[in-house]
Write a structure and sequence with these properties.
This protein is an all-alpha fold and 1822 residues long. It has 80 helices and six strands.
C-alpha cells in the first residue's frame, strides 16, 4: 500500500500533484505513519529493529569510529525494510542522528558514511517519500557544503542532482531559500573544481521556478520566487554574499532600458520576461539586496556589487526610475555613496560610472576630478555634457534627498555626524555631481552643523567641524557668500527677525576659513556693503542692528589693509561716488553681482575695496548720529568700535569723512536740549576722537575743533558720572577724562572746565551741586588719577587704590591739571561749617596719595620762600603778593595737619623733598619746621599774619606725636635767638607764641629715642586706625581702665546701631568710626552685653552693601548706590575695631596673675591663643567668663560668615551670568579692595581663634549647594598666610575630637560647639582639604595625621562613626607619599600600612552588626536624601571608601601578602555578613559588587572571597536580584570568579544529573523527591545561564561538549522522571543563553538538538499530538521565546533551518492563491485558528517606533495577554489561545518585515528579556 493511498484513506487530503498545493502537513502525516506501522506486524518489527539501532546511540561518542559504527548499525537496520514499505519508521529520530553525525568537528569519513545513509534512504523510498519528509532530512544536509571536504562534496552533489532537484516546485518552494544558502558556499571561488557543478544545480533551481524563453509558460504571469529567495539570502546572510555575487554576475538579467525606449511616465515599463521575473512581485528585495551588498564590510564584495550596478542596474533603469519608489531609490543611493567613506579609488570610479552613466565619445577625457567651479570654466557657454544631463535627470534629486536626510538624522557619535560632510567632499571630485549638488545642500549642511554645535559637547563639535571644514574649503567662494547673503536677504524681505540668521552668519565666518584671497578681495567687501546698507531698514530692531554691526566688525578684521587702497579699483568698476547711492540700490547691486556670477558664469562687476570703505564711512557716520539722537548706547558703542577698526584699515585720504564724525557729534550735542547721555556714548565719542590723526598747519591744530566746541558739555557729562551715587563707571570716567584732556587744543580747556565745575558751577543739564557733592566728585577723580608711591608696611597687603595711569608724563599732566581744583577743594577746610569740610577732612585722612598733595603744597612753599629770601628788586606790590600766596599755601598745610590723623603725620614724616644741593632729599616734617623757623621773625618780610601762621604751624608740629623727630633740628636754641630778636625789635606781640614754641622745643631734650620695635609697631598698616587683632595684646595696661570705667548711657549702643545702619550716614562713616574708636575703651563692661547686637548690625549692613556691589557688576543695575565699596571698607574697619576691643577685654578679664617664670615660656600655635581663658580663680566668676568668651566667639563667627560671603564674590566677580563687561575695570577695582580687606579681617580672626573660625568655614563648605562654591570656600584656607596645613589640620582634628572624644584633648583646645556640625561632616571636610593640598605639603600633614591616627587606634570606640573617613585619609596620605620623596619612604610606608591594617580591623570591630547587613540602616542607599550633602555622606560610607581604597591598595600595602591579609579581613568581616544576611540580595549595592571585583583583581589567589562568592552563587536567593543590578554588578563579579576559580563550571555541570525513572514511580516520598530534583536542576540550569551571560562571547567554548551532553540528556525527561519534564523551560532558556553567548561557528553541534526539541514543543500544541503532557505552559512559552530569539538574531546557520518554523520567503506577504503553509508556526496557528480568536492580541513592534530606531526587537515581549503569575495556573488550551497562537500567527510576517526594513537586531533587549526570565523565581517549582 502506498503512503499516498494511506493518506487518502485516513486524512482525505488532496494529492501533492494537484496544482501548486504544498506538501501534506507534517503532523497529519506523522499521525498516519504511526498508525500504519503499529497496525502492520511486519512494519512493526521493522520499526523495532530501527529503534534498537537508534538506542545504541551514545549521548556524545568519544571517538569518531563510534560514529561510523553507529551509522553502520543504523544503515543495516534500515536495509531490513520489507518490500514495498511505504515509509521509514522513526524518520525524525533518524534524521536527527544523521544531522548530529554531520558535525563540522568530525572527520570527513563520518560525513561520507552519513551521506551514504542519506543516499540509501532517498534512493530506496523515492521522491514521493522525500517530498513528505523534506523537513526532517534537509536541515542536516543544508550546511554541509560550508565545511565539507573535497572527498565529501561529490556524494552531496549526487544527492542534490538525483533526488532533491527532481522534486516538484510546489515541494521545493518552502525550502528554496535554505537550498540556495546551502549551495552558495560552493560558489565563492570561481576557479574551484566543483564550482560548475554547484552552479549547475543552482541554475536548475532557477529554471524550475523561472521559465525559459521558449517555454509556453511565458503567457502566464512571471514568477520571481527564485530571485526573491536569492535576494533574501544576500540580505540576511553576509557570509554567503560572495557566492551569491558570483551567481548574480552571470545570471541576473540586465535591467537597463531598451534601446530607443522613451520615458513612459507612470505607465509600467516594457521589460523582458526575464527582467519581469526579477522584479516580480515587487522590486523592493532587489533594491535591498544591492543595499546590503554595498554596505558589506568586505571591499571586494562592495566592488562586485558596484560593478553589478553599473552593468545590470544603471541609474536610468526603468526599474529604479518607475517601478521603485523614491524611498527605495534613496535607500540604494545612500548605500552607494557610503562607499566613498572608504576613500578607495577603485570604488569611487565605479560609483562615478553609475552616477554619470556611459561616457560619450566626445568627452572621453572628462573624468578628471575637479572642484565644482569647473562646471562653468569647462563647459563655457556650450551645451552641458552628456554625463551632466544624465546625472541631473536620473540621480540629482535622489542624491540631494539622501544628503539632506543624513544631515537631519540625529547622531549618537561625532563620526556619524561627520559622514555627510565627508561624503560631500568626495562627491565634489566630479564637477558634474558637485556642481549640481553643493548649491542645494551647502546651506542646510551649515544650518544643521550650527544646530549641532549648540547642543553637543565642544570636543564632539570640534571633531565634526574638522570634516566640515574640508568640505567648506572645497566649495566655491562665490557660492558660499551667495548662500549667506541670500539667506539674510530672504529673512529681511519676509519681515522676520534676523537674529538667528545673523548668529548663523557669525558662526560660519568664525568657525571656517574665510581668508583665501578671493574672499578677502571680493566677497567679504560685498558682504560688508550689503550689511551696512541693511542698517537703513526701518523695521530692524535695535538688537538686530547691533548684531549686524558686530558681524561687520568681524568681517572687517579679516580684510587686509591693502584691499582698501585706491590702486585696487579695477577697470570697469564703479567710481568712488558709488557710496552716495541709496541703500536699496547697494543691496540690489550686491545681489545682482552674485546672480550674474552663479547663473551666467560671467565675471560680474564688484564693488572695489575703496568704494566699500567709503560706503562704510558714510553709512556709519549717519548711523552714529541717529544712535546719538536716540541714545542707543549699545548700538553707538558697536558703531564706534567699527569706525575705529575701519580707520585702522584705511590710510589718510582713503576715507574722506574722518572729520565728519566730529562735526556730527557737535551737531548732535547742540541739537540736544535736555537729558543725560549714557556713559557708553561718551566713552565711544572720546575713543573715536582719539583715533583721528592730528593735522597741523601754520602751527595750529584744526582737527579737534568740533570736539573743542563740545568739550564743556562732554566734561560736565563725565563729571556727572563721577558722582559717588553712580559708582558704576568711576574708573572708566577717569580714563575718559584724561583722554579728553589729551585731545583738546589748547591744553587748558579741560582745566578751565574742571575749575569751573570744582567751584560748584552747574554743568550741562545738571542742577547746581552742593559743595559737599562737588568735593566728593573731585576726590573720586583724584583717587583714580593719581597713583600712590607710598611703600606699604605692616602685613604686606595691597593698597586700597589702583593706579589708572602709570606713565610718568601722564602723571605729571594729571598733577598739573588737578593742582588748581585741588587747592579749591582744600579751601573747604577753612570753614568747619562748610558741608564739604567733613568730606575733605575724611578724604585726606585716608588718602593713599596724600604724599602728592604735600608735594604740590611744598612746591608752592619752597618757590615762594626762595623768592622772598632773595630780596629781589621787585615792586612792593609783587613782594606783598608773594607773602600772601605763601600765607595761603601755609594755611593749606596747617589745615591738613590740624585736621589730620596719624596717617597724615606719618605721611608728612616719611615725605622726601628734593632741593638743589640736597640730592638725598629732606623729610617733609623737618623741611617744614626748618622753613618756618627760617622765616619766623626774619628780615625777609614784615608780615605779622605770616609770622602768626608760622607760629601756629610750629606749635602743631611740636605738640604732635612726631615731635621727637624734630630734636635733631635743635629748635630750642634757634627759637631762643628769635625770642631775643623779637624782644629787641618791634614784634613783641609774638612773644607769647614764641615762648610756647620754645617751651615745647625744650621738652624735646627730655624725650628718649624710641626703640626699633616700638617704631615698627607704631608704623603699622597705613590703612589701620587702631592696632590689629592679635594674640599678643597686653591686657594689664588696660586693667585699671576696665575697673574704673563708668556705665554708659543706655541709648549709646542703640545710637551706634542706628548710625551704622542708616543710609543717611554713609557720607559720614569716618566720623562715626572715630566716635566708635573713642568710646570703646571707656565702656568695657557694657561691651559684652551689647556685642552681639552691634556685630549683627555690622554684618547685616555688610550683606546689604555686598548685594549693592554685586548688583553694580550686572547689566540689570537697580537703584544707584552711594559708593558701596567705601561703605564696605568703613564697615569692615568698624567691625574689626569692635572685635579687636572685645577680644582685648576678654583677654584682660581672663588674664592670670603674672608669674615671672612663665614669661619666657615658648608656646605653640594651638595653645597660645587660649592660654588662661578657662583658668578662673574661683567658681563664682567661671560662668561669667565662659559667657563672655561665648559671646565673643559668636560675634567672631557672625563676622566670619559675612566676610566669607564677600570674599567668595570678590574672588570670582565675573562669574555672574549677566556680568556687565562695560564696567569691568570698576568691578575689578572694587573686588580687589574687598578681597584684600576681607582676607585681612579673616586672617586676623583666624590667628586668634583658629578652631572656631575653621568651624565656620567647614560649615559653609558642608552646606554649599554646588561643588564650585565649596571649592572656592576651600581655597580661602590656601590663600591666607595664617592657615597653612600645619595650622588647619590640628584645628580640624580638634574640632573632630570635640564632637567625638572631648576628653582626649586639653580643655583649652575643645570647641565651644556653637556650630551645628556633625563629626561626619568634619571628617569629610578634612578629607577634602587634604585632597586639595599640594603633594609637597606632606611634611606638614604627616606628623599630626599619623599621631592622631595612632591615638584613634588606642581607643577607636568614640570615633566609630567616622572610622571609614580615616581610611579615606590614609589613602590620601599614601597617594601624596607616593608622589613625593619626603622622609624615609620605606619606613613611612610600613607604618602607614600597619595603621591601615589595624584601623581596618577596628572599623569592623566597632561597627554594629547590622550596619552593613541590614539595608534599612542606611537611608542613603535607598535614595532618601538628595543633593550635594547626601552625595558627600554616601561617598564617605564604609563600602564606597573601601571601593576607592581597593583601587589603590598597592600604594598603601607594599607586599602581596599584606594585601591578601587585608582582603581576607574584608571578606570575613564585611562580605560574609552581607552575603549571609537575611536581606540578601536586597542589601547588595553596586558599590559592594565593584568592591568585590577589585578584590578579585588585587588578590586573585585568595581563597576566602572565592568561597564566599561560591556560597552566594549557590544561594537560590541570588536569582531574585534586580535585573539591572545583575547585569551591571553581578555579571562582572561572576566573570572574575569563574575566571580565577576554573573548577566551578565543571562542578556546576556535574550537578546536572540525567533523568531517572526507576524507584520513584511509587512510594510516599516520590512526589517530593521529584519536586526537589526539579527545583535543584532548574536552579543549576539558571545558574549556568547566568554564567554564560556574565562572560564575554565564547568564554566557555571548552565546556560546550559537556553542555551539549547535558542538554541531550535532560531533554529526555518525562513527566514521571526525576527530574521531570518541568525543567524543559530552563533548557530552552539555556539554548537562548547559548545563542547569545556563543558565536555561530561553535553552535553547529547544537542545531540538531534544538531543531528536534523545538519542533517537538511546537507540535505538542496540536490536538492530535501524542506528547501533550511533556511540555507545560512555561516550557511552551520558553520554546516560543527561543524561536522568537532565533528569528530575531537570525544566525547564519539557523537561516538554513528557518523555513521549518516560519515562512521566511516572500510567501509570507505575497501568498499564491492556493497557498498552504508548511512552516510549523503557520501550520499550528492555522490548525488552532477559529473565528473567535483575535490575531491582534499582540502588538508587533515592526516599526522603528517599537524601540530604538532601526532596531529589530522580539515579538514575544513583556506585553503578554495574561499575567505572568497566571501562566502556570491557566489551562493549556486557554494559554495557547491567548498567548501562543497570536504569536505564531504573526511571527512570519514580523520576521519578513524586519528583514525588509533592514533593521539590526537589538541584542541588548534580547539579553534583558532572558535575564528577566532567569531571575523570575516564581516559575521555579516549590
Amino acid at each position: 500500500m502506498s503512503l499516498e493511498a494511506a493518506l487518502r484513506e485516513h486524512g482525505g487530503i488532496s494529492p501533492t500533484g494537484s496544482g501548486r498545493s504544498s506538501p501534506v502537513p507534517r503532523a497529519a502525516r506523522r499521525t498516519v505513519e504511526d498508525g500504519l506501522y503499529k497496525a502492520d506486524k511486519t512494519l512493526k518489527r521493522y520499526a523495532a529493529t530501527i529503534e534498537r539501532a537508534l538506542a545504541s546511540w551514545e549521548i556524545s561518542p568519544e571517538e569518531w569510529a563510534d560514529y561510523i559504527a553507529f551509522l553502520a548499525r543504523l544503515l543495516k537496520a534500515i536495509q531490513t525494510h520489507p518490500k514495498d514499505a511505504p515509509f521509514l519508521p522513526h524518520s525524525r529520530s533518524i534524521a536527527t542522528r544523521l544531522a548530529q553525525c554531520l558535525n563540522p568537528a568530525l572527520p570527513s569519513g563520518v560525513h561520507q558514511k552519513s551521506l551514504e545513509v542519506y543516499t540509501y534512504i532517498f534512493s530506496t523510498f523515492g521522491n514521493e517519500y522525500i517530498s513528505g519528509h523534506l523537513h526532517e532530512f534537509l536541515p542536516g544536509l543544508s550546511a554541509v557544503l560550508s565545511f565539507a571536504s573535497l572527498s565529501v562534496r561529490p556524494a552531496l552533489y549526487d544527492l542534490f542532482e538525483n533526488h532533491i532537484v527532481t522534486l516538484s516546485p510546489a515541494q521545493l518552494r518552502p525550502a528554496l531559500k535554505s537550498l540556495i544558502l546551502g549551495l552558495l558556499p560552493a560558489l565563492e571561488e570561481e576557479t574551484a573544481e566543483d564550482f560548475e557543478r554547484a552552479f549547475k544545480i543552482l541554475r536548475t533551481f532557477e529554471t524550475t521556478f523561472v521559465p525559459d524563453a521558449d517555454s509556453i509558460d511565458l503567457t502566464l504571469d512571471p514568477d520571481g520566487y527564485f530571485w526573491q529567495c536569492l535576494f533574501l539570502a544576500v540580505i540576511t546572510n553576509p557570509s554567503r554574499r560572495q557566492g551569491a555575487l558570483n551567481f548574480l554576475v552571470q545570471r541576473l538579467p540586465a535591467l537597463s532600458p531598451k534601446s530607443g525606449q522613451a520615458d513612459s511616465g507612470n505607465k509600467r515599463p516594457d521589460l523582458s520576461k526575464a527582467a519581469e521575473c526579477v522584479v516580480s512581485p515587487e522590486p523592493g528585495l532587489l533594491v535591498r539586496c544591492f543595499v546590503c551588498g554595498l554596505s558589506d564590510s568586505q571591499i571586494l564584495i562592495q566592488r562586485g556589487f558596484l560593478d553589478l550596478l553599473v552593468s545590470h542596474l544603471p541609474l536610468n533603469s526603468p526599474v529604479l526610475q518607475q517601478l521603485v519608489g523614491p524611498g527605495d531609490l534613496d535607500r540604494l543611493v545612500s548605500a552607494a555613496i557610503l562607499v566613498l567613506l572608504r576613500r578607495d579609488m577603485s570604488l569611487n570610479r565605479r560609483l562615478w560610472s553609475w552616477f554619470l552613466g556611459p561616457e560619450s565619445k566626445d568627452h572621453g577625457n572628462s573624468s578628471q576630478p575637479s572642484s565644482p567651479i569647473l562646471q562653468r570654466t569647462s563647459s563655457g557657454d556650450g551645451e552641458p555634457s552628456v554625463q551632466l544631463r544624465y546625472f541631473s535627470k536620473f540621480g540629482q534629486n535622489s542624491l540631494q534627498r539622501c544628503i539632506l536626510k543624513m544631515l537631519q538624522e540625529p547622531a549618537q557619535v561625532p563620526w556619524q555626524k561627520a559622514r555627510p560632510y565627508r561624503i560631500c567632499l568626495s562627491l565634489m571630485d566630479r564637477w558634474e555631481i558637485g556642481g549640481l549638488l553643493v548649491p542645494k545642500v551647502f546651506l542646510p549642511a551649515m544650518k544643521d552643523l550650527y544646530t549641532y554645535s549648540t547642543i553637543s559637547e565642544p570636543s564632539d563639535v570640534a571633531e565634526v567641524v574638522r570634516s566640515a571644514s574640508l568640505f567648506f574649503d572645497g566649495v566655491e567662494a562665490s557660492l558660499i557668500w551667495e548662500c549667506l547673503i541670500s539667506t539674510l536677504h530672504e529673512t529681511l524681505q519676509r519681515g522676520q527677525p534676523a537674529t538667528n540668521t545673523l548668529e548663523l552668519f557669525n558662526w560660519i565666518i568664525n568657525t571656517f576659513n574665510v581668508k583665501d584671497e578671493e574672499m578677502l578681495t571680493t566677497h567679504i567687501p560685498q558682504a560688508m556693503a550689503y550689511l551696512i546698507s541693511c542698517l537703513d531698514i526701518s523695521a530692524l530692531e535695535s538688537g538686530t542692528r547691533s548684531k549686524i554691526v558686530g558681524t561687520l566688525l568681524t568681517l572687517l578684521d579679516f580684510v587686509p589693509v591693502r584691499i582698501f587702497k585706491t590702486e585696487h579699483i579695477e577697470n570697469g568698476s564703479q567710481p568712488v561716488a558709488q557710496w552716495q547711492a541709496p541703500a536699496e540700490s547697494v543691496r540690489a547691486s550686491v545681489l545682482n553681482f552674485y546672480r550674474q556670477t552663479s547663473h551666467h558664469g560671467k565675471s560680474a562687476t564688484a564693488l572695489a575695496g575703496i568704494q566699500v570703505a567709503a560706503l562704510l564711512a558714510t553709512r556709519i557716520t549717519l548711523q552714529l548720529s541717529l544712535a546719538l539722537q536716540d541714545l542707543d548706547a549699545e548700538l553707538f558703542a558697536h558703531l564706534a568700535t567699527l569706525v575705529l577698526a575701519l580707520r585702522s584699515k584705511t590710510a589718510d585720504g582713503d576715507c574722506s569723512d574722518n572729520a565728519d564724525t566730529s562735526t556730527t557729534f557737535g551737531a548732535a550735542f547742540k541739537s540736544r536740549q535736555t537729558g543725560i547721555i549714557p556713559f557708553q556714548i561718551l566713552q565711544s565719542i572720546i575713543a573715536l576722537e582719539s583715533s583721528l590723526p592730528s593735522r597741523k598747519t601754520e602751527g595750529r591744530d584744526h582737527s579737534r575743533r568740533p570736539l573743542a566746541d563740545i568739550e564743556s558739555e562732554v566734561t560736565s557729562q563725565l563729571w556727572y558720572y563721577l558722582s559717588p551715587e553712580r559708582p558704576k563707571y568711576h574708573v572708566e570716567a577717569a580714563k575718559a577724562f584724561w583722554q579728553l584732556d589729551g585731545l583738546i587744543s589748547p591744553n587748558d580747556a579741560v582745566t578751565s572746565s574742571l575749575i569751573s565745575l570744582s567751584r560748584g558751577m552747574p554743568g550741562g543739564q545738571e542742577p547746581v551741586l552742593t559743595s559737599a557733592e562737588t568735593a566728593r566728585r573731585f576726590t573720586i577723580l583724584w583717587d583714580h588719577s593719581i597713583s600712590t608711591s607710598v611703600a606699604k608696611a605692616g602685613a604686606g597687603r595691597r593698597g586700597s587704590s589702583i593706579s589708572v595711569l602709570q606713565e610718568s608724563k601722564q602723571m605729571a599732566r594729571s598733577q598739573e591739571v588737578l593742582e588748581e581744583p585741588l587747592l579749591l577743594t582744600l579751601d573747604a577746610l577753612n570753614d568747619p561749617t562748610d558741608p564739604a569740610f567733613e568730606v575733605v577732612k575724611s578724604w585726606l585722612q585716608g588718602l593713599s596719595s596724600l604724599e602728592q598733595v604735600f608735594q604740590i603744597l611744598f612746591k608752592h612753599v619752597l618757590v615762594l620762600s626762595s623768592a622772598i629770601k632773595k630780596r629781589s628788586a621787585d615792586p612792593a606790590r609783587t613782594c606783598k603778593e608773594r607773602v600772601l600766596k605763601l600765607d595761603y599755601a601755609l594755611s593749606q598745610l596747617q589745615n591738613i595737619i590740624s585736621h589730620g590723623n596719624s596717617w597724615t603725620r606719618r605721611t608728612l614724616s616719611r615725605l622726601l623733598i628734593f632741593q638743589d644741593g640736597r640730592p638725598d632729599g629732606t623729610e617733609g616734617l623737618l623741611l617744614l619746621a626748618d622753613t618756618c623757623v627760617a622765616l619766623l621773625c626774619s628780615d625777609f618780610h614784615t608780615s605779622k599774619a605770616l609770622n602768626r601762621r608760622l607760629i601756629a604751624i610750629l606749635e602743631l608740629l611740636l605738640s604732635g606725636p612726631d615731635a621727637a623727630e624734630l630734636k635733631k633740628l635743635d629748635l630750642d636754641s634757634t627759637l631762643l635767638d628769635h625770642l631775643m630778636v623779637c624782644i629787641a625789635g618791634d614784634m613783641e606781640s609774638l612773644q607769647g607764641g614764641i615762648l610756647r614754641l620754645a617751651q615745647l622745643a625744650l621738652k624735646l631734650r627730655l624725650v628718649q629715642p624710641q626703640t626699633e620695635q616700638a617704631d615698627s609697631r607704631q608704623r603699622g598698616s597705613i590703612s589701620s586706625k587702631r592696632p590689629s587683632i592679635a594674640p599678643s595684646m597686653r591686657p594689664n595696661s588696660s586693667a585699671s581702665s576696665l575697673t574704673l570705667a563708668p556705665a554708659p548711657p543706655h541709648q549709646l549702643f542703640r545710637c551706634l546701631r542706628m548710625g551704622f545702619s542708616s543710609n543717611r550716614t554713609r557720607f559720614h562713616l569716618d566720623q562715626w568710626l572715630a566716635f566708635l574708636a573713642d568710646i570703646l575703651p571707656m565702656f568695657a563692661d557694657a561691651l559684652f552685653t551689647n556685642l552681639l547686637p552691634l556685630v549683627e548690625c555690622f554684618c547685616e549692613q555688610l550683606i546689604k552693601v555686598h548685594q549693592e556691589i554685586e548688583q553694580l557688576s550686572r547689566k540689570s543695575t537697580g537703584a544707584d548706590a552711594v559708593i558701596p565699596e567705601s561703605v564696605a571698607m568703613s564697615l569692615l574697619e568698624g567691625l574689626e575695631m569692635v572685635l579687636d576691643r572685645a577680644y582685648e577685654c576678654l583677654l584682660s578679664e581672663s588674664a592670670p596673675e603674672p608669674t615671672p617664670k612663665d614669661s619666657d615660656t615658648k608656646t605653640n600655635f594651638l595653645t597660645n591663643v587660649t592660654t588662661g581663658v578657662f583658668k578662673a580663680e574661683g567658681p563664682p566668676s567661671r560662668t561669667s567668663k565662659s559667657n563672655s568668651r561665648l559671646t565673643v566667639i559668636l560675634a567672631l563667627q557672625d563676622s566670619i560668615r559675612a566676610a566669607l560671603k564677600m570674599w567668595l564674590w570678590a574672588s570670582n566677580p565675573t562669574d555672574a551670568f549677566d556680568f556687565d563687561s562695560t564696567n569691568a575695570s570698576t568691578t575689578a577695582y572694587v573686588a580687589l579692595r574687598i578681597r584684600n580687606k576681607t582676607r585681612h579681617l579673616l586672617e586676623q580672626i583666624f590667628s586668634v581663634e583658629p578652631l572656631e573660625s575653621l568651624e565656620v568655614v567647614v560649615s559653609h563648605w558642608s552646606t554649599s549647594h554646588n561643588d564650585g562654591e565649596a571649592s572656592t570656600a576651600l581655597s580661602l584656607l590656601h590663600v591666607m598666610s595664617v592657615s597653612r596645613p600645619k595650622n588647619v589640620v590640628p584645628a580640624t582634628l580638634d574640632a573632630l575630637c570635640s564632637r567625638t572624644n572631648p576628653s582626649a584633648i586639653p580643655p583649652a583646645r575643645n570647641s565651644s560647639l556653637t556650630i551645628d556640625l556633625s563629626p561626619s561632616a568634619t571628617a569629610t571636610f578634612l578629607s577634602a582639604y587634604l585632597d586639595s593640598t599640594e603633594d609637597d605639603a606632606i611634611d606638614e600633614l604627616w606628623p599630626d595625621c599619623v599621631a592622631f591616627l595612632r591615638d584613634v587606634l588606642a581607643n577607636p570606640l568614640p570615633y566609630r562613626q567616622v572610622l571609614p573617613h580615616f581610611l579615606s585619609i590614609i589613602l590620601l596620605l599614601a597617594e601624596k607619599l607616593n608622589n613625593t620623596n619626603f622622609g624615609e619612604q620605606r619606613k613611612m610606608r610600613r607604618d602607614l600600612g600597619d595603621i591601615f591594617q589595624r584601623l581596618l580591623t577596628a572599623t569592623f570591630t566597632t561597627l554594629p552588626s547590622g550596619y552593613v547587613a541590614d539595608p534599612g540602616t542606611d537611608g542613603l542607599r535607598n535614595g532618601e536624601l538628595k543633593g550635594r550633602h547626601a552625595r558627600l555622606e554616601q561617598d564617605m560610607g564604609l563600602i564606597p571608601v573601601l571601593k576607592r581604597v581597593m583601587f589603590k591598595l598597592d600604594i598603601i600595602l607594599e607586599t602581596q601578602e599584606r594585601m591578601a591579609y587585608a582582603i581576607n579581613n574584608i571578606t570575613q568581616s564585611l562580605l560574609s555578613p552581607i552575603f549571609k544576611s537575611k536581606a540578601f540580595p536586597q542589601n547588595i549595592t553596586q558599590d559592594v559588587l565593584t568592591l568585590v571585583v577589585q578584590m578579585t583583581r588585587k588578590a586573585p589567589g585568595a581563597k576566602p572571597w572565592k568561597k564566599e562568592l561560591a556560597d552566594a552563587f549557590n544561594d537560590p536567593k541570588l536569582l531574585a536580584s534586580p535585573p539591572s543590578l545583575m547585569s551591571e554588578g553581578w555579571f562582572a563579579v561572576l566573570h572574575q570568579w569563574s575566571l580565577h576559580d576554573k573548577e566551578r563550571t565543571p562542578e556546576l555541570l556535574a550537578r546536572l544529573t540525567p533523568p531517572a525513572s526507576a524507584g520513584i514511580m511509587f512510594g510516599v516520598g516520590a512526589s517530593a523527591a521529584r519536586l526537589e530534583a526539579d527545583r535543584r536542576t532548574q536552579l543549576n540550569l539558571r545558574r549556568l545561564c547566568v554564567l554564560l551571560l556574565a562572560s564575554p562571547e565564547d568564554t566557555y567554548v571548552a565546556h560546550l561538549r559537556t553542555i551539549e551532553e547535558k542538554i541531550s540528556e535532560l531533554f529526555e525527561a518525562s513527566p514521571s522522571s526525576s527530574p521531570s519534564a518541568a525543567i524543559k523551560a530552563e533548557l530552552f532558556m539555556l539554548c537562548r543563553a547559548l545563542a547569545l553567548s556563543v558565536s555561530s561557528v561553535h553552535m553547529s553541534p547544537f542545531w540538531p538538538i534544538i531543531n528536534d526539541k523545538l519542533e517537538a514543543a511546537l507540535t505538542s500544541l496540536l490536538p492530535s499530538s501524542s506528547n501533550n503532557n511533556e511540555f507545560n505552559n512555561l516550557s511552551i512559552l520558553q520554546a516560543c521565546k527561543l524561536l522568537d530569539l532565533l528569528v530575531s538574531l537570525s544566525p547564519d546557520e539557523f537561516q538554513l533551518h528557518e523555513w521549518l518554523y516560519i515562512t521566511d520567503t516572500i510567501d509570507a506577504v505575497y501568498q499564491p492563491s492556493d497557498f498552504s503553509p508548511v512552516a510549523l508556526s503557520d501550520q499550528i496557528s492555522e490548525t488552532l485558528g477559529s473565528a473567535t480568536i483575535d490575531d491582534n492580541m499582540l502588538v508587533t513592534p515592526t516599526t522603528p517606533g517599537g524601540g530604538a530606531k532601526g532596531k529589530r526587537r522580539p515579538l514575544l515581549g513583556e506585553d503578554l495577554a495574561v499575567d505572568k503569575g497566571d501562566i502556570q495556573a491557566l489551562p493549556k488550551e486557554e494559554f495557547v489561545r491567548a498567548v501562543i497562537r497570536p504569536f505564531l500567527s504573526q511571527l512570519s510576517m514580523h520576521s519578513y518585515e524586519g528583514v525588509y526594513s533592514l533593521e539590526q537586531t537589538d541584542g541588548k533587549v534580547l539579553r534583558e528579556g532572558l535575564l528577566e526570565d532567569l531571575l523570575d523565581l516564581g516559575s521555579v517549582v516549590e
